[in-house]
Amino acid sequence: MARYLFQRIGSSAVTIAIMAILVFFASRVLPGDPALVRAGSNATPELIAQVRTQFGLDLPLHQQFLQYLYGLIQGDFGTSIRTGKSVTTELMHRLPATLELSLVGFLIASLIGISMGIIAATNPNRWPDTLVRALTAVGGSIPSFWLALLAIFFLVYNLGVFPSPIGRLPLGMSPPPRVTGFYTLDGLLAGEVSVTLAALGQLALPALILGVLGSISVTRITRASTIEALASGHARAARGFNLKSPSIFLQEGLRNALPTVITAMGLVAGYLIAGNIIIEKIFSWPGIGQYLATAISQSDLDVVQGFVIIVGIGYVTINLIVDLLYSVADPRIELGGSKS
Amino acid sequence: MSSIHLATRAASRKRFRLTVVRQNSALITGIVLLFALVLLGAFGPLFLPSPNVTAPGQSLMAPDSEHLFGTDRYGRDVLARSVAAIRLDLMLAVGVAIMAMALGSILGAVAGYIGGWVDDVVMRITDALLAFPGFVLALMIVAFLGHEIIFVAIGVTIGSTPHFVRLARARALSERELDYIPASKLAGANRGRVIFGHILPNAISAPLIQTTVTAGWAILDIAGLSFLGIGIQPPTAEWGTMIAEGYSDILTGKWWPALFPGLLMLLAVLSFQLIGDGLSRRNSL
């Protein structure tokens, strides 16, 4: 087990290193001059040269690369050329906002996805199944930003069910003292229940939209793998032994569909980490996605690199968790494949 | 006796036809939908006003008989713009999907057949790229290259390629073990001939099905980039830019400039998804 973990962490580190290298060279080799952006459109050549020196952009490529690697090892993602602040600090400051939103979105996606998948799988080819399949086909084709705009139009401005899309707290409310960075938790820790409730209210609509979009692949995979498991020999044998159908469903159906469902949930978690750039922008959510969207339109290279590496680490961690859960869900799976 | 026999035969034939229709209903719906959109995109502009003519006096008019989808804040006809965008978005998306398919399948087939360090390098890079949703990858590439249509196409292509590499490589690995490969080598075929003449044609069916689904995703990615202001720029009539422009109007209750382009976009993506679903179901039968 320990050996497997070491191997996995080692190979994950290689994957992240390759990503870091690709991003570095992609950002330096391709056209676009960040120094021009920083110095402004009316800058004199002297000012541009000064900016270049300040951010190390005048060094030869291999020296820039070594500096970049040296910084990475120390957890230093460089300096934002736009704000002059440390990228690591900014990303860490914004990460909790993204994680809070993603986590709630993930819970909603799993809840909707697994229950819809089960409803469809237990009624194959009858109307609940047809309905679920139609919903997933349409849902998989909806542009996320369009869905968000419609939701804001109907649910916020017409019906007033949700608060305005203006970030993590309503106007005039100050954030709770920072402990975890999750406003909902920090509010409780500080004993300010009203802040927690307000934060939950602001969180509800963007998380619901992420959850609905994320639920689609979970629904599809839960449905397909449960139907497959229920049609297998052991499930038919259980029926032959005259077991009750809820017990067959739980023991033979869901139990055996679990590993595939876990994979789907891992994919959704990965999608949520990086996939909410658009939702964060629409809801003025001050997370890393919004930070990236602003940085990217202004050639802020270090921010882009930092984002890529944070997301890469998150994604690789999720994959590791999925693989570990696999062996819990299905004891036949040997970690590391030593028996095969 | 024989009439009963005939009746059951007719019934079973009818049932057979029904199952075929049912299994292919996704495919048929998708094809009809796509065909309708292509027709609309090809001939619609002939009957509609120009998509970029502004009319300051007619800004933000609600849908009526003259402007079926209403007008946007510059007084442009939303229907004309949504229809004009069909050409751009569909051609771009299909082009992107085909490019990604060609690039990914060739890389995958070469890596799978040759193996060794070539395979290691290709798959390591593919895995690293797969660690990102294609959209984020495309976003970064467009940001580095510049906000032009051709760069959007390149970015979304690269973002969609890794899936094809995996699919084609998996098939190439199993194809490589079959007897006809050593046979063709004995007959004097060189590496290139084996890969492009034998491996690739036999490994292509899964990538071809993936192409239709990818075209749908490409529409979403292209429009998503434009929505963020990173891809295709206004005043080009494109679904993502139109929805972005309609965003501030929706907050004041003017829903039509953002609703209709999104609706057409949804139908376009749906048609590709349905075709992809139908094809993969047929293929697995």
Outline the structure in words.
The complex is a heterodimer of chains A (340) and B (285). In chain A, 40% of the residues are buried. Chain A contains 14 helices and no strands. In chain A, α8 packs across α9 (193-230). The model of chain A has no long low-confidence stretch (mean pLDDT 82). Chain A is globular and about 85 Å long. Chain A is mainly α. Chain A has two domains: 2-73, no CATH class; 87-337, MetI-like (MetI-like fold), CATH 1.10.3720. Chain B has 285 residues and is mainly α. The longest helix of chain B has 46 residues, at 2-47. Chain B is globular, with a radius of gyration of 24 Å. At the A-B interface, α1, α7, α11, α12 and α13 of A face α3, α4, α8, α9 and α10 of B.
What would the CATH topology of the largest domain in chain A be?
A: MetI-like fold
Radius of gyration of chain A: 24 Å
Biggest sheet of chain A, in brief?
A: none
Content of β-strand of chain A? under 5%
Instruction: Report the mean per-residue pLDDT of chain A as an integer.
Output: 82
Helix percent of chain B reads over 70%
Tell me which protein chains meet in the greatest interface and how many residues each side has. A-B, 44 and 47 residues
At CATH's second level, what is the architecture of the largest domain in chain A? Orthogonal Bundle
Strand percent estimate of chain B: under 5%
Query: Terminal Cα separation of chain A, in Å?
Result: 16 Å
Question: Domains counted in the coordinates of chain A: how many?
Answer: 2
Give the uncertain stretches of chain B in residue-range form.
none
Number of helices of chain B: 10
Task: Lay out the secondary structure.
The complex is a heterodimer of chains A (340) and B (285).
Chain A: H1 2-29, H2 34-39, H3 45-54, H4 61-73, H5 87-122, H6 127-139, H7 144-158, H8 183-189, H9 193-230, H10 233-240, H11 245-275, H12 277-282, H13 288-296, H14 301-329
Helix pairs in contact in A: 1-14, 5-6, 5-9, 5-11, 6-9, 7-9, 8-9, 9-11, 10-11, 11-14, 13-14
Chain B: H1 2-47, H2 78-114, H3 116-130, H4 134-145, H5 149-176, H6 180-186, H7 191-203, H8 205-227, H9 239-250, H10 256-284
Helix pairs in contact in B: 1-2, 1-10, 2-3, 2-5, 2-7, 2-8, 2-10, 3-5, 4-5, 5-7, 5-8, 8-9, 8-10, 9-10
